[in-house]
Design brief:
The complex is a heterodimer of chains A (389) and B (379).
Chain A (H helix, E strand, L loop, with lengths): L5 H10 L1 H35 L4 E6 L12 H8 L14 E12 L6 E9 L3 H4 L4 E5 L8 E5 H6 L8 E4 L2 E10 L8 E5 H7 L7 E5 L5 H11 L5 E5 H45 L1 H9 L4 H28 L5 E6 L4 E6 L4 H27 L3 H6 L2
Parallel strand pairs in A: 3-8, 5-7
Antiparallel strand pairs in A: 1-9, 1-10, 2-3, 2-9, 4-7, 5-8, 6-7, 11-12
Helix pairs in contact in A: 1-10, 2-8, 2-10, 2-11, 8-11, 10-11
Chain B lengths: L3 H34 L4 E6 L7 E2 L2 H6 L4 E9 L2 E2 L10 E4 L4 H4 L3 E2 L2 H9 L3 E5 H7 L6 E6 L5 E12 L9 E4 H11 L6 E2 L1 E6 L5 H11 L7 E5 H11 L1 H32 L1 H9 L4 H41 L11 H28 L2 H6 L3
Parallel strand pairs in B: 5-10, 7-9
Antiparallel strand pairs in B: 1-12, 1-13, 2-11, 3-5, 3-12, 4-8, 6-9, 7-10, 8-9
Helix pairs in contact in B: 1-8, 1-9, 1-11, 1-12, 9-12, 11-12
The chains are: A alpha+beta (389), B alpha+beta (379).
Amino acid sequence: MITIPLSYSLRNLWTRRLTTVLTAGGIALVIFVFAAVLMLAYGLEKTLVATGSDDNAIVIRKGSQSEMMSLVDRAAVNVIRTQPEIAADPEGKPLAAAEAVVLISMPKRGTGQEAHVQTRGIAPESLAMRPQVKLAAGRLFRPGLSEVIVGAAAERRFEGIGLGRTIRFAMRDWTVVGLFEAEGSGFESEIWLDSQQLLQAFRRPVFSSVTVRLSGPSSFSSLKQRLEGDQRFNLEVKREKAFYADQSAMMAAFIRVLGLFVTVIFSLGAIIGAMITMYAAVANRTTEIGTLRALGFPRRSILLAFLIESLFLSLLGGSVGLVLASLLQNMTVSTTNFSTFSELAFRFALSPPIVMESIAFALIMGILGGFLPAVRAARQNILHSLRAV
Amino acid sequence: MRHKLRSLLTIVGIAIAILAFGMIRTVIAIWYSGIEASSPNRLIIRNSVSLIFPLPIAYREAILAVPGVSEVTYAQWFGGIYIDEKHSQFPQLAVDAATWFSVVPENRVSEAEMAAFLRERNAAIVGVQLVRRFGWKVGDVVRMRSMIFPGDWDFVIRGIYTGAKKTTDETSFFFHWRYLDEQVRRLQPWSAGNVGWYAVKIADPDRAASISEAIDRRFKNSLAETRTETEQAFVQGFISMSDTILIALRIVSIVIVGVILAVLSNTMAMTARERLSEYALLKTLGFRARHLVLLIAGESLLIALIGGAAGIALIGPTVDGFGAVMMRTVGAMFPVLGVSAATRTVSLLMALGVGLAAAIFPAWRAATLRIVTGLRRIG
């Protein structure tokens, strides 16, 4: 088969610049939205997956989706701390942190609308078990005082919780003595304080969860079996990573369904745009196609040439859309996560699969939009085409 | 209209874009429907720290004593799981059986069903949409777990409520707060005697602000300080928590306008380019520039209008389809609202605007075309 050189398809696009730009622009917008939606959902998952650690397990009350809903009483905490699967620190104390999590509503910066900040009363062991958490400014709260440290993402989003400010809840004024970072994980959207202070202030007798450091890779299943089988309590043991990742499931699914529904409808529009362009390209070049056929190019080559032209068009649009979407990576968004009911900051995140999916989606649009016109071009009768003026 | 196929494709393209635009607007409207459903003569009292903190049941009497308050009821979020998480995305509320339906009269229940509900400790009244979704009927026993309270819970459906307004939520599951509290007192005594929030009926909506203030002042410096606001402000607060998503949706709907503009401009540009020699001919015959402009704008507008009308007609069914997909994947229930007149109008105006905008460039070219250039051009 004699093939028509690639440059033929390329130069046709250049000759009809305005049309090419408009059609590719349509495809670029679709790919931009498509990629942005996937990046948003992926960014949310990435943030929450990064919140958990592979070495840790979390013990919560059975059926609780978030720590805010979970209750673990002191008797259960004492039993959990003595489990043999839990690693010990250099001094021989078990690495098990009983924490209490509550939501506090605060005004957001800019709008003044209230949203919930997840507020975590931490144990002395908590910091050692979460090495990603580092103080960025100020100092740690002192046990026994009404002091808190604030996550960097929470500080950016909420009004009046900067260093040195005081926050009022539970009939006390709490001073912000430090800001911390946590490598972009969900902890950065939280406020931390001494768990004893939190429980006292809220007159609350129970903790929310116990996070434990596992002594080895095989300890998880035996710990899970023993604690969940204990009839005195109603506990559930999860890997920390899986627990936090699950909190993204519902929201990520929601973003994906909503976004993909819109993009699919939307892509039909772009396919039609490509189709119009390609039909016109075929119609304008009737004589040219006839000449090519007379020169001996088979129908298949013509089909291919027009299909390639359409693929170039969509690839161009797809790349532009993807480049635009990749610029979003510097943007942090923050919204209430339905699963925890609290504000969570995360970034648009691009991953190789998203790049592949976007390009594939663009090419599919190109093929769908270009196939019928290409068939029409290939099926033209030589004589009629040459006779056309 | 010489290119039937092209015109048809353009019309379909515009229809699809208008459809997407209208769909997004409708979804946003559904989000905000709670505001419309709220009543101006109801106040909501919650714990000032946040919604997850309860208020003591003892506040009831004190609230009733505040001047201007005519009736008080209360509710507690149950956080129930029915079958699994996907089936549970509907509100289950433990309410004060005797007062709830009179403070919230939009939830309509027949008197016979109301009487049956009041008689039984573990009776429930459920929304008509919920009944449709799960195929329940009066007398059915519904077993749920709760994410907040321990144990398995059995409820007997004794009534089905319908909404008085189109925007009233019909997906809630109400049962006796007393039943909840009895169990909690047994299993988790330290958290008994609490309610999630109070709803207050006031006689005069104009005094909402001063009554709210009076209530909050009453509980100042207690362990559970209150935050009282109108129901509308309360619902608005919920919506603003997900405002990022709403903003994103709005941006997308603007991008969509860009896409249809691209598709239609493209068609008009091509049409005009092909007909340059014809335009030149028309000019030679004595037609003025404005005739040509009208010709092109007319064609563009016609295409945009037909496409727009088709798209608007399809918005309703598409939103329903979207609701069905959402229910299957996330389990979220969308109230059936229909497409508002405002959405239809805005969509139509947008189609018109795009039709005009797409005609500008080709029309300008045709109008400023020099006859000689146009005639010299070949095909």
